[in-house]
Backbone:
């Protein structure tokens, strides 16, 4: 399991050594880090609980042309598989492109935070190791969502919507992120509401509506359960509480603070809904995990009058190291991630 610890400490060490984000952040270390992570994610071999399922998805597209109609599945992921079949890149091509989308989105998002290396460190145990290496379609959707949120914080509504649409093409559940585009402080809120409503309805009608009965039966009526959902929901709950406790300072310092308030409220709501349909809530809660990255990257500054920033950074790194240790050693499904294998070395 040492490759996972390597992935964790690669950003953790600079997080300990560096302070707040400088005005001009050097791209070179991030490009090198991104390349390492994309290779580790993209060329993984028999890693992740759904490895066999994704092989089936790939094999299903063998013989299909790019112009054949897509009758089931997520169109973005289906088309990616078809392209890789045409190029004969195998499942590794699919995973490499998926990893590139996820890691690039995560890096852009983290670089926008006050402590970029700490933000990336926080993301490694669950978002990178579990999600990017285990749930490919949702990881691509989340990669696009990271890009989208970066634009939304800058008040860029149109790029936000375009990236959310791209995310929805890879996993239908990403459609729940579209309404967040309303929560900007800039003018034109009525036009944004109309645009969000029209785009949301169009995406729902095209992608979700044909399978809504199947989704409801699977996630709710059949009480499909997701092991560990409560723990993952609680991991979002903690930063949500920190945000609420520091709300006055948060909204004074950070632009478009309202969107993070709504994400925090969503994370708190998930705590009460997880017992109703744990898998459905677990899927939704995944898109709220950027809250962990943002809040904990900003917490050393927000809590500076109570705890020294360096001490807070150390506590957060130790805390997420504990999360990774517990997951690797005690999680029910961690066996599907162990040992880590890479096609480049097999």
Residues:
């Amino acid at each position: 399991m040492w490759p996972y610890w390597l992935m964790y400490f690669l950003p953790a060490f600079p997080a300990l050594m560096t302070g707040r984000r400088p005005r001009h952040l050097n791209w070179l270390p991030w490009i090198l880090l991104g390349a390492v992570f994309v290779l580790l994610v993209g060329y993984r071999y028999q890693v992740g609980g759904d490895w066999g399922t994704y092989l089936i998805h790939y094999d299903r597209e063998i013989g299909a042309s790019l112009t054949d109609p897509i009758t089931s599945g997520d169109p973005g992921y289906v088309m990616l598989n078809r392209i890789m079949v045409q190029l004969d890149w195998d499942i590794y091509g699919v995973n490499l492109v998926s990893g590139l989308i996820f890691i690039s989105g995560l890096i852009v998002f983290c670089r926008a935070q006050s402590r970029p290396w700490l933000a990336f460190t926080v993301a490694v145990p669950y978002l990178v190791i579990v999600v990017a290496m285990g749930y490919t379609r949702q990881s691509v959707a989340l990669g696009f969502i990271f890009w989208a949120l970066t634009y939304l914080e800058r008040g860029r509504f149109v790029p936000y919507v375009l990236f959310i649409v791209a995310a929805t093409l890879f996993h239908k559940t990403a459609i729940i992120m579209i309404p967040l585009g309303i929560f900007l402080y800039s003018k034109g809120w009525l036009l944004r509401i109309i645009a969000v409503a029209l785009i949301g309805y169009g995406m729902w009608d095209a992608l979700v509506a044909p399978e809504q009965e199947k989704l409801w039966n699977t996630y709710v009526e059949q009480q499909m359960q997701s092991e560990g959902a409560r723990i993952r929901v609680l991991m979002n709950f903690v930063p949500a509480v920190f945000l609420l406790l520091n709300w006055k300072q948060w909204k004074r310092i950070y632009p478009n603070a309202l969107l993070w308030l709504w994400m925090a409220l969503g994370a708190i709501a998930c705590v009460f809904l997880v017992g109703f349909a744990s898998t459905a809530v677990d899927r939704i809660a995944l898109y709220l995990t950027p809250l962990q990255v943002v809040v904990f990257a900003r917490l050393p500054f927000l809590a500076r009058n109570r705890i020294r920033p360096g001490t807070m950074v150390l506590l957060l790194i130790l805390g997420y190291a504990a999360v990774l240790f517990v997951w690797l050693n005690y999680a029910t499904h961690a066996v599907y991630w162990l040992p880590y294998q890479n096609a480049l070395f097999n």
